[in-house]
Each structure stands twice: as structure tokens, then as C-alpha cells.
């Protein structure tokens, strides 16, 4: 019986599924990498192989956080620099971290910064990690934003652990409009009059046991999506748009076109960074023109 093998695009090695499962067993048993199951380990190793890396690199570069595979910020920065990216750190304190990013595919330098005021507006400042490790959390955000702006291919479909820890619990449920309807108590049954045997039609004063329900023509309340950005985050979006001179119509057109929402209130929590990056990259002439 032949084994199914996964062939790397760039590396010359071939690892069979059997070999991957053996490696996954030892990775999980070692408890060194935060991987909880063999299935998680194999999935991460397949990603590494698809990227032309040795499967063991998955344990070094990836973490499983809240059921998601995440790429460590230093690993993301290393990939960026290995592909020709450059970073010049301008400020690195507990209050603010800033750096200039550039890449051969995006040669114009871009300055990216994160400070505690922005973190608080985004609803992150009160979290334990942000209280204990401000500088590290700010740096992770700067790295993620800078790499995504200059070389998005380094971070396709993956977030850093720091970003995932800041996500609100995802929910696919919708608020049921039925829950807001008052409970209607049916009227008391009325005694039925005596009728004679063989009578084909009911008496003129006969009424049904229960009155028919009233015709409620009011429209059903619309279900509101959950897991959207907070009020502070909405204010941040509006403030940055105003600062860039982007009109309300241009902002709403972008949200409808790229995120399928028509209101700033309905921006999904995990799309906030993409919206802020779009605002940072555009000016009023390019967007409103």
C-alpha cells in the first residue's frame, strides 16, 4: 500500500502523512508549543510545508490561540525582512511605538504608530496584557499593521497572537425579533349556546371558542448583527476619516463595496484594522474625487 505524500514547492524534502502524524504526536506530548491535539499539529505542519518550510517550523512560528492559528509577531517581522522588507524603529516606549516600513514591492516608506490613547479608544487599554506588557503589545500592533501595508503576502489569512487575544468572542447568532413580542393571553372561552339536534347551521349569536387573533400589520423588527465594533471604536473611525478629509459618502461607499455593510456601526470587530489601514492610506483627493 502506498502512502500519500505532500511535496514541497521549494524545499526538496517529502514528508508523508505518516511522518507528519509521528511528528505531531511528539509535539503534542512534549507540551512545549501550546498545541492541544495531533490534528492541530498536522494542520500547522501542512501549512508550513505549503510555504516551503520544514514541518517543525510550524511549532516554532505558530500558536493556537482561541481556536485560531496565529503567527508570532517576531516570526511575521522575520518573514517581512527575509523578503526584502526594511524597518526603522523611531520610538519604543510604554506609551508609544512607531516605525517606518518599506519593501521592494512597496518602496515608498510608511510610518506606522500605536500609542496607549489609540489602544484605549479601541477598547484595549483595560485588558491585562495591555496593562502588564504595554510596549510589547504596541510593538505587535505596529508590526502587524506595517507588514500588512507594505507586504500583505507575508500575513495572508493569519493574525498575531496579540491581535487574537484582543478579539471579542465571535458569535454567529442573531438576536431573535420574537423575544421582543409581548405575550398575548387568549380571552376566556365563552359558553356555547344549546343547539337542537340536526341543526345544520350555528345560531346567529354563536361565536368561536377563542376570538381570532388581531391582524398585526406592524413590520417585524430587524435583527441587529452582533460582534460589531464598540462605540469608542466607531468614534475612532469617524475621527480618523475627518482628519484625513474623507467624506461620509466616500467612507460608506468603501464599507459597502469591501465589507458589505452600510453603516459604521455595523463594521465587524475583526475588520476594524483593515478599515483603519484604508483610511491611513488614502487622502481626501483620491477618495472623494
Secondary structural class: alpha+beta
Number of domains: 3
Count of extended strands:
7
General shape:
globular
Taking all residues together, what is the mean pLDDT? 76
Uncertain residue segments: 1-12, 170-180, 195-199
Brief overview, please?
40% of the residues lie in helices and 13% in strands.
Overview of the molecule:
- It is a single chain.
- With 289 residues, this protein is an alpha+beta fold.
- The chain folds into 3 domains: 61 residues, no CATH class; 98 residues, no CATH class; 64 residues.
- The protein is built from 12 helices and 7 strands.
- The radius of gyration is 29 Å and the shape is globular.
- The relative contact order is 0.08.
- The N terminus is likely disordered.
List the helices and strands and how they pair.
Blueprint: E1 5-7, E2 14-16, H1 17-30, H2 38-50, H3 57-61, E3 62-65, E4 68-71, H4 73-82, E5 86-92, E6 96-103, E7 106-115, H5 116-121, H6 128-132, H7 134-150, H8 161-166, H9 231-244, H10 248-259, H11 272-281, H12 284-288
Antiparallel strand pairs: 1-2, 3-4, 5-6, 6-7
Helix pairs in contact: 1-2, 4-7, 9-11
Amino acid at each position: 500500500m502506498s502512502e500519500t505524500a505532500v511535496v514541497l514547492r521549494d524545499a526538496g524534502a517529502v514528508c508523508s502523512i505518516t511522518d507528519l502524524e509521528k511528528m505531531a504526536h511528539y509535539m503534542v506530548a512534549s507540551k512545549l508549543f501550546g498545541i492541544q491535539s495531533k490534528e492541530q499539529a498536522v494542520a500547522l505542519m501542512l501549512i508550513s510545508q505549503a510555504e516551503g518550510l520544514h514541518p517543525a517550523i510550524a511549532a516554532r512560528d505558530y500558536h493556537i490561540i482561541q481556536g485560531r492559528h496565529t503567527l508570532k509577531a517576531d516570526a511575521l517581522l522575520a518573514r517581512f525582512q527575509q523578503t526584502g522588507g526594511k524597518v526603522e524603529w523611531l520610538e519604543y516606549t510604554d506609551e508609544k511605538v512607531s516605525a517606518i516600513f518599506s519593501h521592494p514591492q512597496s518602496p515608498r516608506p510608511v510610518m506606522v504608530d500605536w500609542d496607549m490613547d489609540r489602544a484605549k479608544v479601541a477598547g484595549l487599554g483595560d485588558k491585562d496584557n495591555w496593562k502588564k506588557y504595554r510596549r510589547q503589545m504596541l510593538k505587535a500592533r505596529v508590526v502587524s499593521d506595517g507588514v500588512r501595508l507594505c507586504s500583505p503576502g507575508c500575513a495572508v489569512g493569519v493574525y498575531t497572537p496579540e491581535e487574537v487575544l484582543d478579539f471579542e468572542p465571535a458569535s454567529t447568532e442573531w438576536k431573535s425579533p420574537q423575544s421582543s413580542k409581548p405575550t398575548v393571553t387568549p380571552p376566556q372561552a365563552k359558553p356555547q349556546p344549546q343547539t337542537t339536534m340536526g341543526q345544520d347551521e350555528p345560531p346567529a349569536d354563536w361565536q368561536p371558542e377563542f376570538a381570532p387573533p388581531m391582524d398585526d400589520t406592524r413590520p417585524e423588527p430587524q435583527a441587529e448583527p452582533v460582534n460589531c465594533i464598540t462605540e469608542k471604536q466607531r468614534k475612532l473611525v469617524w475621527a480618523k476619516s475627518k482628519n484625513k478629509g474623507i467624506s461620509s459618502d466616500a467612507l460608506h461607499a468603501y464599507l459597502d463595496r469591501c465589507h458589505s455593510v452600510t453603516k459604521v456601526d455595523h463594521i465587524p470587530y475583526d475588520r476594524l484594522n483593515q478599515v483603519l489601514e484604508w483610511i491611513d492610506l488614502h487622502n481626501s483627493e483620491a477618495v472623494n474625487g
